[in-house]
Each structure stands twice: as structure tokens, then as C-alpha cells.
Write a structure and sequence with these properties.
Layout (H helix, E strand, L loop, with lengths): L2 H20 L5 E2 L3 E2 L4 H5 L7 H19 L4 H19 L14 H4 L1 H24 L5 H26 L7
Antiparallel strand pairs: 1-2
Helix pairs in contact: 1-3, 3-4, 4-6, 6-7
Length: about 170
């Protein structure tokens, strides 16, 4: 990554964190649906970002969100898992011609079909781990499933809107 890209992604990291902890923390739809938009930062990083770098970024981002949410490592655990499986999932979904170098895997660059197949399973794994850990010690698994599914939908739809409004084709953020 070039110096300008590092600055651009550092600012995006801070922007996602700011929006998550100061705006989206208070947004809950129907008492069940939470938006964990910060996962889109990891999902839309360039393909060539290594797994170790993703793990550190995921750990840092999850830890900061946990501090503001008082969630005792739940965001960190779920985000580190997402960071760990992101690159193998990208390799599993490689198109025939491969990927263009230095192109982030965003909706505008890859198209809706590819992006849904790429992002939705990763968001699902992240959210199910997060809400599963949150529900431990309770017997109400119906609420766990409702929270997870509604939050997956809310997060994915808001992530699509953010990409359509703020991302550029080929350059990402």
C-alpha cells in the first residue's frame, strides 16, 4: 500500500469507529436489530492486505468498540474471527480471471451478486458469534436468532447504502 492509501484507510478506520460508537450505538430498530457497521471496514480493505494485518486491525477495532459498548470482548472475538476467515473466503470466491490488483472488494467494483456472496456470509458469521456469546447463560435462543438475523439485515443494508454514497469505483473509500 502506498502512503496515501495508508492515510486514506487510517481515516476510514477512524470514521467507521466514530460512527459506530457515537451514532450507531444508540440505534436499535424494534428493540432487536443492531447495526454493527464497523465490519464493513474490514470487508472493504484491498484484497492484498494480509491475514496478520487484518487480525491486528480487527483486534484493534473490536477492542475499541468493546470499550465503548462495555461488551467484554464480544466485538473483539467476532471481529478477529471475521478477519481470520476473510482472505480464505475471498480466495474461495475468486472469479475466473482473478482479481485486479489494488482494487478493494466493494459493491461498485465487484457487482451486487459477487458482493452479496462475499459479504453476507462473513457478516452472518460475525453476527452469529457476537449474539451467541451475548446470549450465553440464557435459555432464550429465539431472541438470539431474531437479534442476529435482524442485525445481519440491518448491517448489510446500511453497509450497501454507505458504499453507494461514499465509495468510489476502483479506489474504494
Amino acid at each position: 500500500m502506498t502512503g496515501s492509501n495508508i492515510i486514506k484507510y487510517s481515516l476510514a478506520f477512524l470514521a467507521y469507529l466514530f460512527v459506530q460508537v457515537f451514532i450507531l450505538k444508540e440505534v436499535v430498530l424494534f428493540g432487536y436489530s443492531f447495526c454493527l457497521l464497523y465490519v464493513f471496514f474490514l470487508l472493504t480493505l484491498p484484497i492484498e492486505v494480509g491475514t496478520v494485518s487484518l487480525l491486528f486491525l480487527g483486534f484493534g477495532m473490536g477492542m475499541v468498540v468493546d470499550v465503548f459498548y462495555d461488551s467484554l470482548g464480544m466485538n473483539t472475538a467476532a471481529t478477529v474471527l471475521l478477519a481470520f476467515i476473510r482472505n480464505p473466503w475471498i480466495k474461495a470466491n475468486t472469479p475466473r480471471g482473478g482479481y485486479d490488483e489494488h482494487i478493494p472488494p466493494t459493491l461498485l467494483n465487484m457487482g451486487l451478486g459477487w458482493f452479496v456472496i462475499y459479504a453476507l456470509p462473513l457478516i452472518t458469521i460475525h453476527h452469529f458469534l457476537f449474539f451467541y456469546v451475548d446470549s450465553l447463560g440464557t435459555d432464550n435462543y429465539f431472541i438470539f436468532v431474531i437479534r442476529a438475523l435482524s442485525s445481519i439485515l440491518f448491517t448489510f443494508l446500511l453497509g450497501i447504502v454507505v458504499q453507494l454514497l461514499f465509495y468510489n469505483k476502483k479506489r474504494g473509500i
